[in-house]
Design brief:
With 468 residues, the chain is α+β, with helices and mostly antiparallel strands. It contains 17 helices and 13 strands. The termini are far apart.
């Protein structure tokens, strides 16, 4: 087939192969990106299903179940992140000049003030918990604008359901990322005054959107809009799924960040070298958790029928009636003691339901559950020292070894959480270049802030963390 014939064939099916081709047609451009988002969704479809199952299991309060996922998560999250970090800004090479120290202090105080305004601690906790449950924690920053021209930064957690990324095996190679929004009509109009009123509302309020639900009033309907950050073009596109004719909005690089993304590299609980698709760690030990749950249900079922009950001979009905009405330590006269003695005593006339075998079974089930839990803790690395449990028969040295090796698996996670917080601060520092000098002056109340926009990006790139 000739090149002309091939081109004609491509035109007939409406395909495009290069950026220049689809950028000429707004409709093809929008369809291209919506298709790219669809393919990215399909790549992580199985993981998102597992993530939902994991979170449902975490929230579940089923009767007769042992929610080991909740217990482990509530133990590991504080171990990974237990105090809000504060920025520590220094000159890259430790130059000890007065102007440099002043600018470093300006950046440090500005980041601290911005972090307090949007509760950075809550954002970090959400990212760490997303790391431990779905397997990937994502946050993003926004530059907020006030009516009086004031500016401030706002960090937000991004749900695992609302984040997509382009095809890549490493984060450095990711070509684009996308964030999903569900916008109201006035928000659509604010985004695009011309077509905002025409965009279809294809979703509803809540976590689970209901498409094509005509029974809902418009007040409860939303439009699904994707905010795509294209690193190659350094542009941001806003695309509505119900409006494939053209993008709602296209922006040039709005923040001028060095890494372009408004998000740091995500937190991954399980990192796989050949893919960026997250892994829910819970799915690795789910079979052991199911075993613990099954044993717990069996224990509860057997205990439920283990009752002190039995039968007695009918001729001792009066005696039994008196016995049932006596308090602890109280005695009463028997009506027919001679017959009771002839029958061999009242204990011979009472037949109790045998529960000795049930007791032995329950004891065996408790031991089996402890063994299953021990296997589970061995697999997850959550040692008993980390859970606040200890054995009085163990030596101090044995407990110290447990504490040391029990926390070994958490150390990589702790370093990654520290890296994540540092990257958030670095992005915040980059965005301070968008602030007006008077605002920075107000946060520092000293001179030299006019030099900040041109100097901090190169000379003040190293940020350390220290606890409050």
């Amino acid at each position: 087939m000739s090149d002309t014939a091939a081109l004609t064939a491509n035109e007939k099916v409406g395909t495009v192969e290069t950026r220049a081709e689809y950028e000429k047609n707004p409709g093809e451009f929008t369809k291209y990106w919506l298709k790219a988002i669809e393919l990215a969704s399909d790549e992580e479809k199985d993981w998102r299903a597992q993530a939902k199952e994991t979170i449902d299991r975490y929230k579940a309060n089923k009767a007769r179940s042992f929610n080991i996922l909740y217990a482990n998560t509530q133990t590991t999250v504080p171990a990974l992140y237990n105090s809000e970090p504060v920025p520590d800004v220094r000159r890259r090479f430790g130059d000890d000049d007065e102007a440099g120290q002043t600018l470093a202090e300006i950046i440090e105080r500005a980041i601290s003030i911005q972090a307090e305004m949007y509760d950075f601690d809550a954002v970090m906790k959400a990212a760490v918990k997303d790391r431990q449950l779905p397997g990937r924690g994502v946050s993003r920053v926004r530059l907020m604008m006030g009516e009086n021209g004031s500016k401030w930064l706002k960090w937000e957690p991004v749900s695992y359901r609302d984040f997509r990324r382009g095809p890549a095996k490493t984060w450095d190679d990711v070509p684009w990322v996308a964030y999903r929004h569900r916008l109201k009509r006035d928000e659509l109009v604010a985004l695009n005054a011309k077509v905002g009123a025409q965009v279809g509302l294809d979703a509803s309020v809540g976590e689970a959107p209901k498409k094509d639900d005509d029974k809902l009033p418009d007040t409860f309907k939303r439009a699904t809009v994707w905010e795509v950050w294209d690193r190659e073009a350094r542009k941001v596109y806003f695309l509505a799924e119900s409006h494939p004719l053209a993008p709602l909005k296209v922006e040039d690089d709005p923040y001028k960040l060095r890494q372009f993304w408004p998000s740091p590299r995500p937190l991954y609980q399980v990192e796989v070298p050949d893919t960026l698709v997250p892994v829910c760690e819970f799915q690795i030990w789910k079979s052991l958790a199911d075993e613990v749950d099954d044993i717990t249900k069996r224990i509860a079922g057997i205990v439920k029928v283990m009752k002190w009950r039995g039968l007695y001979a009918g001729q001792f009905e009066n005696i039994m009636a008196k016995l049932s009405g006596l308090d602890d330590g109280e005695l009463a006269a028997a009506d027919d003691s001679a017959r009771a003695m002839q029958e061999g005593g009242i204990d011979k006339a009472i037949w109790l339901w045998p529960i000795e075998q049930a007791i032995q079974t329950v004891q065996g089930l408790y031991e089996a559950r402890e063994q299953a839990k021990a296997h589970l803790y061995e697999l997850t690395g959550v040692a008993d020292i980390l859970r606040g449990q200890t054995n009085a028969q163990e030596t101090l040295g044995a407990q110290q070894i447990k504490a040391q090796w029990g926390s070994l698996r958490l150390q990589d996670g702790q370093k990654d959480v520290q890296r994540y917080a540092r990257d958030c601060f670095r992005i915040s520092a980059d965005m301070l270049g968008l602030f007006d000098p008077p605002q920075l002056e107000a946060m520092r109340s000293e001179e030299h802030t006019s030099e900040l926009q041109s100097r901090f990006g190169i000379s003040y790139a190293v940020f350390c963390l220290k606890k409050k």
